[in-house]
Specification:
Layout lengths: L1 H6 L6 H4 L3 H11 L24 H15 L1 H5 L9 E5 L5 H10 L6 H10 L9 E5 L5 H7 L7 E5 L6 H10 L5 H8 L3 H7 L20 E5 L4 H15 L2 H9 L4 H14 L6 H13 L14 H8 L40 H8 L8 E4 L5 E4 L2 H11 L2
Antiparallel strand pairs: 1-2, 3-4, 5-6
Length: about 400
């Protein structure tokens, strides 16, 4: 309301100004030389330097300049005496109205409405750029306006490797002092509620209890004071840009949703080190899920080691290593694919694009087994007899 009352000066009917126009313009033009000087980095739009005309825009500008002259003392008076610089960040797309309100709330200016008019007069409101600034309460409005045109960016860079689980990412954020890893993990475990609070992500499955798997692994450049929410938002946005409908089209045609694809991709990411083998490994697991493998060969049980390692993971050993394969049978968890058929309830890690593409479009095979041979590669088998022969050959 305060700002609206001040703005009424610009809504005076033009008809009321016609009679006194020439007299008013001459008087105001003479007075405008005393408007508080805006630093040279700003575009100075003094009415005295413009052709004399009576257009509404010109009259509004001249009246605004005259009003600012009357507010010289308020413009020159800092909000406080503290000279300590405080960080202030303008987000991309943020409006001048929001910025001035936040400046007032932070105690950096005393009058948001007046500063908004000042920025409008000099055209600064149209040239605000996102960035990081350092401002002090002891600065005048003119000094703050100057600083707001000199953004600087303090960035941090973090690389989230493919195949990490959320707890590992949280540990990484803490170790590298990127942001609060514990708060990051809490948001991840907020699932759909976190996603709704951060933005519009209609492509996410409904009812998620975790964002595990949907936080795209990549290298991120962030503002130095980025929050866990900022990072998660960037990771979700990156996922949406990379995992396009075209990437998921083969799975869609096969009747598989994004939740199934990403869950499968997370397992493939943990199993395969070679990109050329990922479609083959994905085919083994999809063959089991679809019932193409007989009970003798494992049936619908994936028997995927990473799922059990995920279930039994703990701080310091997030991917549990059992003393023997038989130990997998002792882990009671919905993620134990030795004991429960089909896919686990959610992804177990952050898969990269290659694993997602493999899960979406697996190789067409009849394989029901694969076996690591010790050099990062695998051999594949259709029958139990073939698989046992591979074991005898490569694990003797």
């Amino acid at each position: 309301m305060h700002f609206l009352l001040r703005s009424l000066v610009f809504l005076v009917p033009i008809t009321a100004l016609v009679v006194l126009a020439f007299v008013a313009v001459s008087f105001i033009s003479a007075q405008l030389h005393d408007v508080p000087e805006q630093p040279k980095v700003a575009l100075i739009r003094s009415a005295a330097d413009q052709p004399l005309d009576l257009s509404p825009a010109t009259l509004e500008l001249r009246l605004l300049g005259f009003y600012l002259r009357l507010q010289t003392q308020a413009l020159d008076t800092p909000a406080g005496t503290e000279s300590t610089l405080h960080p202030f960040t303008i987000a991309p797309g943020e409006t001048a109205a929001t910025v001035t309100t936040r400046l007032e709330e932070a105690g950096l200016i005393a009058d948001a409405d007046l500063f908004r008019l000042y920025m409008r007069y000099y055209g600064i409101d149209q040239r605000l750029a996102a960035g990081d600034f350092e401002l002090a309460p002891s600065m005048s409005m003119a000094e703050i306006a100057q600083r707001l045109q000199q953004a600087h960016f303090e960035e941090i860079v973090v690389t989230i490797p493919e195949g990490m689980r959320a707890e590992e990412v949280a540990d990484l954020l803490n170790v590298e002092s990127i942001t609060d890893g514990d708060a990051f993990l809490a948001l991840v475990h907020g699932g759909s509620a976190t996603a709704r609070a951060l933005g519009d992500y209609p492509w996410l499955p409904d009812g998620l209890t975790t964002l595990e798997g949907y936080l795209f692994p990549d290298t991120y450049r962030l503002p130095a004071r980025a929050t866990p929410a900022d990072l998660i938002r960037r990771m979700l946005d990156n996922f949406a840009q990379r995992v396009t409908p075209e990437v998921l089209a083969p799975a869609t045609q096969a009747g598989r949703g994004i939740a199934q694809v990403i869950t499968m991709a997370s397992i493939v990411e943990r199993e395969a080190t070679r990109a050329d083998e990922r479609p083959l490994i994905a085919s083994v697991y999809w063959n089991r899920v679809s019932g193409a493998c007989s009970a003798e060969t494992g049936g619908a049980y994936l028997q995927a080691d990473p799922t059990v390692q995920y279930a039994a993971g703990r701080p310091g050993e997030w991917w549990w290593k059992p003393p023997s394969v038989e130990a997998y049978q002792e882990i009671q968890s919905p993620y134990n694919t030795y004991l429960r058929p089909g896919l686990p309830p959610a992804p177990i890690a952050s898969p990269g694009l290659s694993a997602i593409e493999a899960a979406s479009q697996p190789a067409e095979t009849l394989y029901c087994f694969f076996l690591g041979v010790g050099d990062g590669s695998h051999v594949f088998a259709t029958t139990l007899a073939e698989h046992e022969a591979n074991i005898a050959r490569y694990q003797r």
